[in-house]
Amino acid sequence: MDLTNQIILVGSAVLLVSMLVGVLSNRIGAPLLLVFLLIGMLLGEQGPGGIAFDDVQTAHLFGSLALAIILFDGGLATPIKHFRVGLRPALSLATLGVAITATITGLFAAWWLGLNWLEGLLLGAIVGSTDAAAVFSLLRARGLELKQRVGATLEIESGSNDPMAVFLTIALIELIIGGDDQGFGLVMLTEFARQMGLGALIGLAGGFALTALINRLAMAAGLHPLAVMAGGLTLFGLTAVLGGSGFLAIYLAGLVIGNRPLESTQNIKRFHDGIARLSQIGMFLMLGLLVTPSHLLPVAGDALLFAAVLILIARPLAVWLCLLPFRFTWREQAFIGWVGLRGAVPIILALFPLLAGIEHAAMYFNIVFFVVLVSLLVQGWTVAGLARALGLEVPPTSHVVQRVELDIPGQQELELVGYRLAADAPVLLERRAPHLPAGVRPVAVVRERQLIDAGDLGDLRGGDYLYLMAEARALPGLDHLFVAPPVPERLTERAFFGDFVLDGEAQLGAVSTVYGMAIDPADRDLTLDALIRRSLNQHPVVGDRLELGRMALVVREVEGDRVTKVGLKLGSDD
Length: 574
What we know:
The chain is of the alpha+beta class. Helices cover 60% and strands 10% of the residues. Keywords: Antiport, Cell inner membrane, Cell membrane, Ion transport, Membrane, Potassium, Potassium transport, Transmembrane, Transmembrane helix, Transport.
């Protein structure tokens, strides 16, 4: 009994300390995953903790379970609207990009380390997937919001490239063990069709079925998150048992569930956000425990060179080739190329050769672990500064830190939201009753602990608590009215979008006459919307710019495929 109590004490204390250190790491800009890895190493057999842990099977089990939960949460949190601008480039990066990265790094490893070409490709496949979740946690900690095209591409890629790396790793292990009797091409094609086909089919069908089941079952609100998680993990296990990609299935299931009307949506998403963070902490602590630091030193030189090829050659080249058809700017390509952080997935995949008993498996694991450390240190610490330097940040549009969301039983489309109005809230500075977005109704105002009638909202004051009933799509507009975000001067609306706001349907000829803009006479009848979309040749997003001499048109609002509001910056030097 004493041993049980001691284990509970030590385990909970380690978790608490890890969370507190994680908060501190956000403040100093350190990559959170790196912190947990280092804590795990300090707790290990060669650290002050002295805990001896070398159970690869258990590590693989809990690592796979944690990764499935993280991918499920990633799907739940990905808005389907991001697919309009990021799906095609993200899928290109998640499939062809992973294959190119694995091939370049694999062939280099085969040459440099003296491996045969299949063994080299296996090492390349293990490090093929990225962990953009780590990137977004860093950006959020620094208060950065990326242009939607870049952010959506990275977000979708991070959730969809893990199955490709898993597929390549398993297929190459089968080839190495089987001696390539079936032929490289046949095994790869068969494995790809089976894993991706079953993963996509079961994930999508299961997501719709699980959504319908949750909405129809009468259960306590606290059970909804558990039922959704159990259903997602059931789909993961079922797909894996049938030989498909469980990781793809659970990500797609989460994507479907997160974008369908669902009972207790906010409770479900909050629960899974918390359990995903817990899984991430536990997984990295465990992987830190598993590694033996003294075994990293003998491979340090080879691993550094391998990491350099991966970060400086393989990933940028793969990004450039995959994004060629989509007309990303060089700044966007450079950032996406640099943000190929390696996280938990490569370390978990490095366990596969150990379980399969493949020669050089221990070397694979140590090299991969070292590469992840280098990636988190070098790329993780520079990503926020690079986003600013390349001009890829946009003024924040959502400030949920001051928003209270309450689920209403039986209503999946409406939310009751509340704001505490600061003295500098935009609605108070305008000194007039706000024009509420469509689908919003005021409910109540609480002032000095007294409930008063919301009325026409013309008498709002600083310190008031305002509650409104709103459709989910109206929430960003409400944030814009009732929250004053702490943004630097360069990201204020006037500095970023310019002094003038133009309608997307305004004709270029009329705008040029008013502002003295030099244009091609053949373009006089074009609307600003048509001009910008023709110039971009892709879906426009907020922050896109079109230079016209010393002036610039900056996309301010987008609805569907149309640019509805355009900012005009005079004297632009960009």
